[in-house]
Structure formats: structure tokens, C-alpha cells
Amino acid sequence: MDIEEEAASNVVPATHKSVEVDDDGRSKRTGDVLTATTHIITVVIGAGVLALAWAMAQLGWIAGIGIMIACSCISILTYNFIADCYRYPDPVTGKRNYTYMQAVNSYLGGKMHVFCGLILYGKLAGVTVGYAITTSTSLVAIKKAICFHEKGHDAYCKFSNNPYMIGFGIGQIFLSQIPDFHKLTWLSTIAAITSFGYAFIGSGLSLAVLLSGKGQATSLTGVKVGAEVTEADKIWRVFSAMGNIALACSFATVVYDIMDTLKSDPPENQQMKKANVVGISMMTVLFLACGGLGYAAFGEHTPGNILTGFGFYEPFWLVALGNVFIVIHIVGAYQVMAQPFFRIVEMGANIMWPHSDFINKEHPTKLWIFKFRLNMFRLVWRTIFVVIGTIIAMAMPFFHAFLALLGAIGFWPLIVFFPIQMHIAQRNIKVASLKWYALQLLNFTCFLITVLAAIGSIREISKNISKYRIFTYKQ
């Protein structure tokens, strides 16, 4: 029995008021399609949506739109497979799989379970470092927007990211004391709302450029090879752009945490499938709007991020507001991604030292008007985690390249390979049947996309390492 299964088995069945607990003895789940959709949007509609205009510029209209729609369709299909595997062996009445790892173990066995865990939790830890970097970038962009407005667009407006990373880390230390994923709905809702806010601001500013008649020339095939872009550069950029679009669809790292908040009636898999369709469809519309309008506004010179890369200078307050929304969103998204990582460590500690008061005892605490239960192990270990992540972000602010590599490696196994293999096992699909071949073709195609994205990330890492001095980055 592994950590997750043993922790689940330690649940003490309620002896009274059975209506307040679910079939597994845990507190009654109250989530629904709306809350699940909110969690999905919080994770997938991240600040990366503002980089899709750059991706569109590298690919052009045909490939850019085609890949965005294709990735969305693939995501709906495979996340529906994942939803059906929440329970084992029957998707409606079977035993719950509380985590992605448990589901992989139930359907595919121990070796795949270990492989899944390494990728899943490695990616979760890496994402939190990337969020610290992205937040500091947006905070610096706010200061730069004010600086450019006051001193002119040619002024020297470069600032260190380090103070902002430290501030973000301090804030996350406090938020990380939220006990578990089930208490995050309010934070996730605020994050989802702000994600739409900055996406609409980026799209709106791009549309304003077009309406003013200042839009730049675009192409069906993207950036042209010439004096500024060599053939090799074009290829590397295409690889990176494909990875950016594919990875933007990912919420596999928290999909079972989301499902584990859903009430049992109607069945969880039915609710999650509806949430998948709604959440991913909304994501696709925003992706196409931000990517298409940004590319139409800036053409071949589209910046990597249309808000932090200063594709726009005025109105400066709106650019600043967009970056404020990014910060608010990432504050919430950090917790949505970190809580599953926190939980697996705390489960393991509880199993190894079941009688330790330091690890297991909850202390009722009141701070001003706030009442909460303080756990010393949770306080110490989560604080250490946030501090280490913040230091790494400060030391290597180009860590987004490492993060892109983690994401590239995680895309194929988490979003495509495991869901397809679990679906085949669950439905007993015969090897060499037509459906089996179709699923394996999809599997192989997405594997190639992952490999290409990983190659692009490795190249970016090698370029940055050779020219960077630790803790000295200014944006």
C-alpha cells in the first residue's frame, strides 16, 4: 500500500450524522460543475495566455489557430478519460482515486505509478518557482509603466526583481497555511475573475491598435526568414511556440484534487466532463482572442508578453491594471498548484510518525478576528518550501526555461499517455483494433510535440546559463 492509499484508509468512519459524510467516510463534498470550472480556469488561463500572441507570430494564422484548436480538442478528450478513472474499476460506483498517482496505480500498476509521481510532483514544485518569477515580472512592469509615462518611452527604466520576489514569498508563506485544497474555492474564484481581466485588457489594447489603423502586417506562415531571423531561429521559435500552446492547456497536475471536491450526485465523472468542456472552451476563446489580436496588432515584432514586454505604453494605468490582475491571479494559482504537493508530503509524514504531536496535532488559534487551527509541521515545512522556491527564483530568474522544460516533459505523459493507457485498460480495448491504433497515433503525435518543445527549452537554458550572473537580474 503506498502513501496515498494508506492515508486514505486512515479515515475514521463517522458513527453519527451519516448525512454529513461521503461513502468513503470523509466530510461531505459540496463542489459542483461551477466550482470545478472555476478551478480549471484558474489553472489554465494563466499569465502565459499573454505570450500566445508571440506564439501565433512564429506559427502564422494557419498553424497557430489550427494548433490551438487541436490542443483544446485533445485536452477535452483526454481529460474526460481522466474523469472516468476517478473511481476504480467502475467510473460511477467504484473506489475513489484521490490523486492522479492513485489512478495510474489502480489501472496501470506500480512502475507507472512511480513514473507518474516523479513527473507530477516535480512539475508542481517547479511551477511554484515559475510563478514567483512571473509575479515579480508583472510587479516590475507596473513600476516601468509609471516610469515610462513620467520620463518618456526612451528613458532608462530597469529595476531589480528581487524585492518583489521576496514580497511574493512572504505573502505565500501566510496563504500556504490554508489547510487543504477544499478551502481554496474563494481564492480560486478571485483568481479566475482576474485572469479574465488581464486577458481582456491585453486583447482590448491590441484591438485598439487595430482600430486606430496602426496594426502591423501579418502572414499565414508567421515570421519570415530574412536578415533578422535565420532559418535555424525560425525552427527553434516554431518548436517553442508549439510547446507554449500545448502546455497552456495543462491542469493535469491538479485534476483529481478538483474532482475530489465534487459531490457524488450526479456522478463525479459526469460533472467533471461538463466542467472540462466549459472550462477548456472558454480557455480556447481567450487563447484565440489574445493570440490573434496581439499578432494582428504587432505582426512580426510581437513581444513575448504583450503586457510585461511593453507592446503598449499607454494608457499606462490600464497596462498597470492588467499586471495587477496577473499578480492577483498568480497569488491564487500558486496555492491551487502547491496544495497537492503539500498534501503528499504531509500524508507521508503522518504515516511515518502517526503519534507525533508536532506533525499531527492541531492547535486552535485566534489572530485578531481570525480563528484557525495551527499545525506546527504544516507551518514549518510549508514555510521552508516557499523560502527555498523564492531563493531559486531570485538566483535564476530565467528559470522559466527550466519550467518550460518541466512542462514539456509533463505534457505528453500527464495529458496524453497516462489518460490514453488508463482508458484502454478501463474499457478493455483490444490491441491492434482500430480504436487502439487511433489512440496510439494520437499518443505518438503528442510525444513528438513534447520532444520538440523540450529541445527548444534546453537550447534556451544553455543560452541563458552562459551569460547570467547570480542575483543580479534587472528587468
UniProtKB/TrEMBL annotation:
Membrane-spanning ranges: 33-55, 61-82, 184-211, 277-296, 316-337, 379-396, 402-424, 436-458
GO cellular component entries: endomembrane system; plasma membrane
Function field: Carrier protein involved in proton-driven auxin influx. Mediates the formation of auxin gradient from developing leaves (site of auxin biosynthesis) to tips by contributing to the loading of auxin in vascular tissues and facilitating acropetal (base to tip) auxin transport within inner tissues of the root apex, and basipetal (tip to base) auxin transport within outer tissues of the root apex. May be involved in lateral roots and nodules formation.
Domain Amino acid transporter transmembrane per the UniProt entry, residue ranges: 30-458
Keywords: Amino-acid transport, Auxin signaling pathway, Cell membrane, Membrane, Symport, Transmembrane, Transmembrane helix, Transport
Protein name as annotated: Amino acid transporter transmembrane domain-containing protein
Membrane topology term: Multi-pass membrane protein
BP GO annotations: amino acid transport; auxin-activated signaling pathway
Record localization: Cell membrane; Endomembrane system
Organism: Arachis hypogaea
GO molecular function: symporter activity
Family, as annotated: Belongs to the amino acid/polyamine transporter 2 family. Amino acid/auxin permease (AAAP) (TC 2.A.18.1) subfamily.
